[in-house]
Amino acid sequence: MVLPTEEEKEREATEGQDAQVVYGRIRDIVRILGDFRRFKAANRSRADYTQQLIADISSYYGYTPFLAEKLFSMFSPDEAVAFFDANETPRPVTIRANTLKTRRRDLAQALINRGVSLEPIGKWTKVGLQIFDSNVPVGATPEYLAGHYMLQSPSSFLPVMALDPQPNERVLDMASAPGGKTSYMSALMQNTGVVFANDANAARTKSLSANVHRLGCKNVVVCTHDGRQFPKVIGGFDRVLLDAPCSGTGVVSKDQSVKVNKTERDFALLSHLQKQLILCAIDSINTKSATGGFVVYSTCSVTVDEDEGVVDYALKKRPNVKLVDTGLEFGVEGFTNIGGKQFHKDMHLTRRFYPHVHNMEGFFVSKLQVLPRSVLKNKLQQAEEKEENDERLEEDDNEAGADVTFNDDEDKALMESEYFTLTRNCLTKTQKTNAANKKLEVSSHSNLKPSNLFFRLLLYIRDFT
Q1: Domain 93-151 classification at class level
Q2: InterPro entries this protein is in (predicted)?
Q3: What integer best gives the mean pLDDT of the chain?
């Protein structure tokens, strides 16, 4: 395989490119980068092949060069191509059974009777069903209108499963429209407690309210506030779900416009907004909650700036927060370092989901526990005490290791004292006794052992004093 020359690149740019030729070149470059020493050309570097691969991905799949490079940098070359390929394939249609009104088994049987081909999504969920084919509109069946199920992507099940709301709790969904996650939380709480379903866009709360009523969620309060106003408007929640506004790089298969309408400035602005929202979500938690104290931060984006970067920022700004296990049975671990960026050591507890790996929309899920300030103070105090003890021990070690010297002027008074003279005479006598003992033949019954000599020395000292 030979890389195109500059003239060939210019001709392709002006006259257009043959899609089959470009895709074939993509596969060839991936093969070369997989075993570079074996397949590389003599006068070509890895950077040459990588730059050409990114350019071909951009032109073949329709991404801007900036976004193609940003997404490509997260994967190995072969996995990157698999990711871009998966974004060209629509995701399966899935629904969630509403356990407030029915059971999944009963719902599946009712839909099968109407000519719907379906099966459970997987073992990881007890409420999801995947639709393969249907003779009737899935969004207009009597079961749908009666609120027995919700059209919902499986990736949006994950944040709610990670949050794990309990009955009688006080929960906030900061960006809730159109209501799939809110209604799922209401079902898990068995219509007890209260779920505050907030969305900054008042127009979107219409569909949110409609779904809440259709699904029979009686513990939901719909409100319209900017998420950054929490906890000023209301706080003291046991759990908070923040499915933050994002670039949508995980849902390209559903919204192809993401490929061309996201710039570097967009990512910077979104990241800034997400950092503000996650701090407000943390501050809205009741740290004295007996059952909760958790925040789940999720996005439908796969970029590091919107995922690990935001969580890492929150951990630095709020020392009383720690990452905990999401409780999800599958998913790829979050990055602890990538592209020269270092993140918190516990970032592996977060989970990433990819369309080419899990056959669902790209998603990021993290779970944080907010600890009381008193616990933080105790930890800081213990850390300070430990640091002081370590410093004290280090000073003692330094003093013990220092050179020992004698000052004759300071010791003169002690050396001339009566006690010192008697002790010196005693030791001299002991030395003479030891010398005499060496000349004697010690029998097997002799008891002149080092311990006996030491005891005899003590007797001498007693007699003289």
Answers
A1: alpha beta
A2: MeTrfase_RsmB-F_NOP2_cat, MeTrfase_RsmB-F_NOP2_dom, Nop2p, RCMT, RCMT_NOP2, RsmB-like_ferredoxin, RsmB/NOL1/NOP2-like_CS, SAM-dependent_MTases_sf
A3: 87
